[in-house]
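Supplementary Data S3. Sequence and structure tokens for construct A.
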Amino acid sequence: MMYGFLSRAPLYFFPALLIALEEIIRSASKIEGSVVVGVSMAAASVGMLIPLTSPKPIDPRTVPIDVLEQVSRAHGTIINEKDKAFIGIVWVFFMVFICVWAFFLTLSFGINIPDLYIKLNTKSITWSSLFVFLISVILTEIKEAL
């Protein structure tokens, strides 16, 4: 019973960790709060993806009893193939969104990245973050439909 909670603990605490890190960095750099609205939205988008990495439970009535017994003896779980593939896709988006969040955080400090010739203002970061958030919402809805 305790292992189940421990295996899900990172899912519950990751959004809080992102918010804490952002607050520490913001405090250290004395950045005004309105500048990082887009960064906060990107962090929320990352947080929305975390629960999608857990497989949805399968109704045991849809699985033959002999298969359930074998899985039980092996202390395993049954995961829907579509859900398994979707979880892999979610992990890719998760890693990309972490990079997007870090990139927006860097840009919110007003740091120029001359090698990339990128100069975004606060509005473009916010709109980009809303797009990332929309992708998270769409992925959440797809997971619910599986």
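Construct B, processed identically:
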Amino acid sequence: MSLALPKDVLGSLVSNAPGIYASVTINTIDNVYELNAGLNIKIIECEGILAFKEVNVKNKDVIVPDKIEFYIRDGLKIPIAPPALFMTGLGGGINELADTIGGEFDKLPPITILLFTRLEAIGTLVGDFNARISLEGLSLKGDMKLKVSDSLLDLKAGINARWIEPWELNLYGNVSIIDGLIKGGITINIADDYFYGYIFASICIPDSKFRLWAVKNLQVLRRLYLMNLSVQISRLSVSVSV
């Protein structure tokens, strides 16, 4: 079920359409009750999530909070290393509260802390960074792009770590430049008795660009045909991997 108030119902300060929104989710099978709400103000935009779940506590079924999250994704500009680096968004919360309170777990309580930040670097790069931290491990993910066009540069990186038995560490990073024309990446997995690493780099020319090149080099292709060389190319790529 979703509810929304019309645009500018609270005056010109509330700028989005709808100005205020809320949605309610009721799942009687899993006993989950969730509320999503948001308010977009011209000064700052804030989003919150509050979810409840029914669990058994001391032989009694009770409804307790399960998710508490808030996010400010726009409207901030906190200097970190001015004039090169600013924080333009932040957020966080707690997940898996209900099962932690109800004791529905085998080993460690599943309670998880969420952290979020959005950074702006040198006025041209914008990145979102998310973290999930629990008693079993953590996950860090980052995504950075150019403000003018996310197809010119797309950089992703992350770390996943599990610090209980069996422990494991995974690191990865990927970069795409000029809509995938140049790609590269790295992946490293480390475990108790296992190690795996992979690095790659490639230059890819899409089929449309190859056709344009073929038109300009028709004589070369004709000579190849006369030499009985049949080439079927839908994507030309040159890659180096280790």
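The chain has a mean pLDDT of 76. Helices lie at 97-102, 207-216, 218-226.
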